[in-house]
Amino acid sequence: MNILEQIISVKQKEIYKNKIVHPIKKLENSPFFERKTFSLVKNIRQSHTGIIAEFKCKSPSKGIINNAISIEKVVKDYEYAGVSGISILTDQHFFSGKNENLKKSRSIVSVPILRKDFIIDEYQVIESKSMGADVILLIAGILSKNQISNFSKIAKNIDLEVIIEIHNEFEIEKITDNLDIVGINNRNLQTFIVDYNNCLRLSSKIPNNYVKIAESGINNVNHILKLRKQGFKGFLIGEYFMKKKDPGKVCKYFIKSLSKRLNN
Prior knowledge:
Elements: H1 3-21, H2 24-28, H3 40-46, E1 51-55, E2 58-59, E3 63-64, H4 71-81, E4 85-89, H5 92-95, H6 99-108, E5 113-116, H7 122-130, E6 135-139, H8 145-157, E7 161-166, E8 181-185, H9 198-202, E9 211-215, H10 221-229, E10 234-237, H11 239-242, H12 247-263
Parallel strand pairs: 1-4, 1-10, 4-5, 5-6, 6-7, 7-8, 8-9, 9-10
Antiparallel strand pairs: 2-3
Helix pairs in contact: 4-6, 4-12, 7-8
């Protein structure tokens, strides 16, 4: 079993339990369920830099990244740094994420929040809205085109934006209606190895009507300048910020440096 298969196996058991403890009716009564969501698409289009900063404590490939910092401090600092959106890992078993982290963040920041998880059931789409997410991620490598179409339709009905994440050319065929953003991930989810050129290879094959974002392994301004030339508007950065003692401060400096280069 590769890492991804292990994650899916654990996720299926988790969802089964959650459906019993928190049935959909209960989720729909959440105070967040009726709120008007923030648009990540709009923020990226209006932003000069398009940085989506991530809160991630641990990963299967790197182990503990940072478990000494509070979610409240990091997300407030990210907002202050001028990010277009914040990505929050909610997978507990492999990434030390918590649904609670997203709920807490929603109460204290006014930027779009992406729920980063392995969505394999429509239950999780409803759950994402109930915890205060604005955007969900659908990973093409673990879903059929039908599932992507179905989940994104449900998401649109409850005012959520949708990112489809692709890793190779075959997955481009899974792009369907009701998607807002196409994310290209440099990380191979079977092996968790990062190939920095994956985004550059696939970018021209993505239809131009989608906002394009680059994910994984982005850690310097020059890399972003190269990606921008290929039509990328958003850049998801997690590990590079999170492995520092003060992620928000590093994020602020990074956005400042990028702005400076773009203005020159």
